[in-house]
Every structure is written in C-alpha cells, then in structure tokens.
Amino acid sequence: MFGAIEAGGTKFVCAVGNSPDDIIESAVIDTTSPEKTMAQVKQFFQQQFPEPIRAIGLGAFGPICLEKHNENFGSILESPKESWSGFNIYRYLTSNFKVPIHVTTDVNAALLGEFYFGIAKGLHSVVYLTVGTGIGGGAIINNRLISGISHPEFGHMMCKPHPKDIDFKGVCPYHGGHCFEGVASGPAIKARSKKPGYEISEDDELWDIEAYYLAQLTFNLVSTFAPQKVILGGGVMKQSHLFDRIRTHFNLLNKGYTQLDAFNLNVNELVSPVALDGNAGVMGCLYLAKYGFGKLVT
Amino acid sequence: MFGAIEAGGTKFVCAVGNSPDDIIESAVIDTTSPEKTMAQVKQFFQQQFPEPIRAIGLGAFGPICLEKHNENFGSILESPKESWSGFNIYRYLTSNFKVPIHVTTDVNAALLGEFYFGIAKGLHSVVYLTVGTGIGGGAIINNRLISGISHPEFGHMMCKPHPKDIDFKGVCPYHGGHCFEGVASGPAIKARSKKPGYEISEDDELWDIEAYYLAQLTFNLVSTFAPQKVILGGGVMKQSHLFDRIRTHFNLLNKGYTQLDAFNLNVNELVSPVALDGNAGVMGCLYLAKYGFGKLVT
Asked: How far is A267 from chain B, CA to nearest CA, in Å?
C-alpha cells in the first residue's frame, strides 16, 4: 500500500492505494494551520491504515525548498500563507512515518499524473500550467523533471500588457500586473470584472485578454523548452472556449518562427486541456510513492 | 585527435586538438554558401590532418533540427540565411568523415565550454545567453542539456516594453519589437542610435533600456529553470557596465520573490559574465567530440 498527499494551498487530498490507478481510499482536509492540517493528515494514514504504508508521495504547494543537500529541504519558504512559512513538511512526515517520502510540488505531481496516465502518455517533453488562484507550472523535458536549485515559477515571468489592459494594476502580491499571475490568474479575472470567471459571458472581451496572456506564456514556454505539448489545467481552464482562443493568439504571436510542422506538430495538439481533471495530482503522488523519482531527476 | 566545428552565422571556426584545453590548430572560415563554406571545412580537416580525426563536435547556428529520430536531423530549418535553409550539415559531415559526429547548437557549444572549463565549472544548473546579432540561449539543468523537440530560443520570448521604448518597432524579422531579440540585440541598439554599441557613451539612457530588457529575460529564465548562474556573453555584453545595471533591474523586477538567499546565492554570482570569451564554443565542440553527450542528454 502506498500513500499520496496532494498538499494544495486550500485543501490537502490524502489517498492510499496499490498504484496510481488503484486508489482505495481518500480524504480531503482543509489547509488551515500546519499543526491542525498535518495532525489530520497523520490521523488519516495512521488510524485508517494501521497496516504501515510503504512510501509516501508528496506534492506540496510552494515556494518549497527542494534542493537535495540544503538544510531546508522540504521547508515552505517565505509565503503569503504566513503560518506555513518556515514549516518543514518533509521533516514532519519523516519523523511521523518511517517510510521513504518523495517530495515535489503540487504542480509537478499533477504533471506526473498527466505524463504517465493522462493526456501526455507516451510523450517525452511536456509543459504543464495550472491557471487558478495562481499560475503554476512544471516541465518534463526528455523524460526528466525540470528542477534547478528550486522548482519552476512560470507564472511569475514578465508579460507584455494587452493593449486594452494597460491600466490594470494586477493582483500579484510581489509583481502587481508585471507577471502573468498578476494579470491572468483567477483573482485577476475577478479583480477586473468583480465576478468570478464562470459568471462571465463567453462573449466578454475579457476572455480575449485572458487568452492573449495565456498564449504569450505558452509561447514563452515553447521558446524555452520546445515541448511536444503544453497542458493547461486549473479552475480558469474550465472555460473550454479559451483553448481555441489561445491557439489563435499563439499563431499570431509566433508568426511562423517555431516551425511546428517540421516536428510533425500542430497548434491543436500543442495547446491541450488536461485529461485527468481532479485526479492528476493524487495519481502523480502515488506514482512517486510507488516508483520514486527513478529516471525523472538526475 | 578530435575535431571541432563552431558553425556560426558569420564565421565557422574549425579546430583540431587532443582535448578541449589542448587545441593544436584552428582556422576561421567565412559563412557564405553551404557549398563553399563546407568545402573549406572539409579541406581544413582532410588536407591539414591526413591522419583521421576520431570524432567531430559540431555547434551549429539555427534553427536546426536536433530531434534524433526526425528525418531532418541536422538540417538547418527555414532561416533568414536562405541558402542554408534545408541544408543538412550533419549529413554532409557524415558522408565526408567516417567518424561519429556530435551535433548541438553554437550556443549550447559555448555553454558546454563555460560549464566544463569556464565560469560555471563545478555547478549543476546554468543558463547561457549570447547577446549579439541575435539573442540565443541554452541551459544545463541538473547536469542535463535542455532540448525538447528542438533547441531553446530564449531570445524570442515576449518582452514587456520599457516605458521609454514603447514606440520602438524592433528588429526581429518575425516578432518586430515583441521579443527580446527584437529590442535588445546588437542590431536593435544600432537601429535606435544609428551607431553600434561600442560607440555609445556609458551614460547614454539606452543602456538603462538595454539592461532592463536583459534583466527581464534573466528574470524569466530564473523563474523557469531556477539556475545557479545566468551567464551573459556575446558582443553586446562586452559593455561590462551592463552587468551591474542588469543586477539592479533584476532586483527591482524580482521584488524578493525568488529567494536567492535561501539557496545561498546572490545576484552578483547569479548574473555573470563569461570566462572563456572567444574560445568557449570551440572548447565545447571539442568536449563533444571527445566525450559525446554522455550524461548530458537522455
């Protein structure tokens, strides 16, 4: 039996199963304080499964230190979630469960799910973006998970403002309207229109602005990684009409520079929705629990 | 004896040596037509070194197809250098030299040089940018060379215009002033001021604009790869006063989000000049000739 903890900023999803596609039980726990939330996590695994689990895969919200030899490995860095800043979630788990704990970000966990079991099955180079409360991302290039001294933060790349969006101040607590998270996350949509995305008409001009930014971010990631696919998930992407708009803007921005056809690709395959909505993260965590990083990280 | 071909857009540098730090002879050949240039390359190796070389490392200008199983592997894709578009430089070399040919981009070759013998020796995650006729880039993350279906094109990421540069139309033949190459390459500097960078005073406001763009690109790459170092080389970076300006702008853009201190880094180490100016490319090619990709690419 293996354990999964998808530790998101608003909820934790815990699960146990024999493999990523054989989940036996799961539970959702609110993300409150580290003490309270982690006590519930501990209870889920220890009380419901007295038979020890063999390993745990953890996909945690960030910023989190993932540098192997750093004394802060597994620690949440300075974060707007103040009570979590400095909390070492890896250390908590290793001191409570005497099994291997494999740690990555929540976004990488979802990427792993889609990579091994979802829309990107069989590919070797894939970028994943989640557009919701924030904009997060991860990448597997040539079957390797990308991680330098830390995990990627694609959403904080700088953006070129849409001509009709110049005056919007943005919502990123660090970068205002300078970064993609500041202008294209769920809270940015709400800040402009005073209502959440799912209440905004498909005809609203706001979606063209949104698609322009997400196309720009996709284009930057294609220019950086040359992936076979850029998967877009998260709450905002439930507006499925966005995909064709993003593809149209991508072509307008690219202007033929990245020669997709030379690699037998087209924009419809490149810009892709998720396949495992809601389950990708837990499946990715269970993959990690069962197989570890293996060939994923050098 | 090993062979190196640093195949740049304006000149080819060919060399032979026992190892990257033991170059015996080299020659510079103008980049004209494929037939003419490659005949001179052939002549350099065959006439001057009748004793067969054991392998050749090639670092070629792009866009070039580097997808292993693609029938166009080693072919220059559609490019402003029309006579080279569709020319397969790898096939030319394999049919003329019966030795292993290891192919990468000219920028990756320079990155390899700096990574193994220069400013990045001993590190595991490094990004390299060359700012000259164009803006090119490469990355080694966790000791792996980054390459999806194709090589990186960092210079074509979209940029946020400097407030004093809004009206500049840019010089990128594909993206005008929308991408970094369009606004911060050598030709962009010349298009604004009607003279090359080395004739422009250090006090000129243009350098602040230039530094803003390069800081933005650096910031995007830090947000993407979380490298230990971003090396900036190429003709424009010979203006060494740019480095401190870029560091200042980097801090202004980052606003403390990427917590360098958590990883024992600081902006002075992060934003770095090259160490092997002029030789990095050939050394990288000789490294490839001697050692192949080894652990560099999966």
From this structure: 14
